[in-house]
Design brief:
Elements (H helix, E strand, L loop, with lengths): L1 H23 L11 H12 L14 H22 L5 H30 L7 H26 L6
Length: 157
C-alpha cells in the first residue's frame, strides 16, 4: 500500500509539480526533455519491484533506494539543469547531489514520523539508505553525462 501511495505521489509531484516549481520560481516554462519527469516517476515506481539485495546486516533496500531515490532524482536534476541551461558538468553534478541529499533526508524524516506513529523501525537503516541514494544518483549522473557526451557532435579544432 505504501509503495502504491509513494508511486502515485511521484507522478503527482514529478510531472505537474516540476512545471509548477518552474512557474513559482519565475523561471521560463520547461521545454527541453519534457519526458524526463515521466521517466523519473516510472523509475521510482519500477524500483519497488526490484529484488531485495542485502548489503549490510540492517538493510535490504539498497536497490530500491539506489534506483527509486538516486536514479529518479538524477533524471529530475538533469531535467532542471537542461531547462535552466546549465552547461558546466560540475554545476550539474552539484545540482544532482543537492537534490538527492535534500530528498533523501526528507524521505528519512518521513520514515521517522511513520516510526513514531506506527511503531515501526524504518529508520534503522537510514545511513545505508542515504548512501544508496547517493550511489544511485552518481551512477545515473555518469550514465546521463555519457549519453549526452556521445549524442552531442563535437567540433574538431
Amino acid at each position: 500500500m505504501f509503495a502504491l501511495a509513494l508511486s502515485l505521489l511521484a507522478f503527482v509531484t514529478y510531472v505537474p509539480g516540476s512545471r509548477l516549481a518552474f512557474r513559482v520560481l519565475g523561471w521560463e516554462r520547461p521545454t527541453r526533455h519534457w519526458w524526463l519527469p515521466w521517466l523519473a516517476a516510472v523509475t521510482l515506481t519500477m524500483a519497488w519491484f526490484l529484488p531485495a539485495v542485502k548489503v549490510s546486516a540492517g538493510s535490504d533496500t539498497f536497490l530500491l533506494h539506489a534506483v527509486g531515490g538516486g536514479c529518479s532524482v538524477a533524471l529530475m536534476a538533469f531535467f532542471v539543469s537542461s531547462n535552466r541551461r546549465v552547461s558546466n558538468v560540475g554545476q550539474r553534478l552539484a545540482i544532482t547531489l543537492a537534490m538527492v541529499s535534500v530528498l533523501g533526508v526528507a524521505n528519512e524524516i518521513l520514515e521517522l514520523i511513520i516510526d513514531h506513529l506506527a511503531g515501526t523501525y524504518l529508520t534503522a537503516d537510514s545511513a545505508s539508505d542515504l548512501l544508496a541514494n547517493t550511489v544511485g544518483a552518481c551512477v545515473a549522473f555518469a550514465v546521463i553525462e555519457l549519453v549526452v557526451l556521445l549524442r552531442v557532435p563535437h567540433q574538431v579544432a
